[in-house]
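Work Package 3 (structural annotation) set out to generate three-dimensional models for the target panel prioritized at the project kickoff. During this period the team completed the workflow that converts sequence records into discrete structure tokens, so that structures can be stored uniformly alongside our sequence database. As a representative example, we reproduce one entry of 150 residues exactly as it appears in the project archive.
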Amino acid sequence: MRAPEDLTVLIVDDNDYGRILLSTSLEKLGIGRAVGVPDALEAIAFLTKEKADIALVDWYMPEINGAGFIRLMRQLGHDVPVVICTAYATSENVKRIRGLGLQHVLVKPHDDNALLRTIWAALRDHDTAAGSANVPLAASEEDDEDQVFL
């Protein structure tokens, strides 16, 4: 398992305050580097140039939502474990998230202990499943076209 101070965490959230909260929490938890970007395209640009150990991704974002970002990231060959961060962890959203092959959801507002546990669980599960070809690119067309921005 990697040391917290060696991790780079990519935060993808269109809400400035959300990115600041996560960055502050990660700093308090001793995570080495947190990089916040406001949208999926900037996240892809970052991943093209640098490596992230894990991505914390908002579910509802304008233009390209969380599901669309995950599909795009996978299509471009970026194998980064993802934690979905949402204040809207409804049964329907959790079903969509699971349909993407993701198991880790952090409910906003988060507490630091839950954040750290979720990051470690996602990293552990990703390392265990490395090389698995059973991860779908997208749950459904509906997820890519979801235009509900709450």
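The chain is about 40% helix and 15% strand.
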